[in-house]
């Protein structure tokens, strides 16, 4: 599992965009449509976000991102 988000392992620009979609409560399909990427690619980004934030689900990711000032 990757290390939690730090200056050395920040979220990518795309991961930050996906995180915004998660925070808005959008499903993967809608996030992908908005970003012009496939639902599968969104799932990969979500998995990366969960790993980098050391959380187990989308809700925890949003809460952790808020704690870290990412949202």
Please tell me about this protein's structure.
It contains four helices and no strands. By secondary structure, the protein is mainly α. Helix 1 crosses helix 3. The longest helix has 15 residues, at 39-53. The protein is globular, with a radius of gyration of 11 Å. Keywords: DNA-binding, Transcription, Transcription regulation. InterPro entries: Sig_transdc_resp-reg_C-effctor, Tscrpt_reg_LuxR_C, WH-like_DNA-bd_sf. It comes from Deinococcus arenicola.
Task: Describe how the helices and strands are arranged.
Blueprint: H1 13-23, H2 28-35, H3 39-53, H4 58-67
Record keyword descriptors for this entry:
71 residues; mainly alpha; 4 helices; 62% helix; globular
Concise structural overview:
By secondary structure, this protein is mainly alpha-helical. Helices cover 62% and strands 0% of the residues. InterPro entries: Sig_transdc_resp-reg_C-effctor, Tscrpt_reg_LuxR_C, WH-like_DNA-bd_sf.
DSSP helix fraction? 55-70%
**Helix and strand element order:** HHHH
Global mean pLDDT: 91
Flag low-confidence runs: none
Given the helix and strand composition, which structural class is it? mainly alpha
Largest sheet: none
> Helical element count?
4
Total DSSP E strands? 0
The proportion of residues in beta strands is: under 5%
Question: What coarse outline follows from CA principal-axis ratios?
Answer: globular
- Using only C-alpha atoms, the radius of gyration works out to 11 Å
C-alpha end-to-end distance: 23 Å
Keywords: DNA-binding, Transcription, Transcription regulation
Protein name: Response regulator transcription factor
Domain HTH luxR-type: 4-69
InterPro entries: Sig_transdc_resp-reg_C-effctor, Tscrpt_reg_LuxR_C, WH-like_DNA-bd_sf
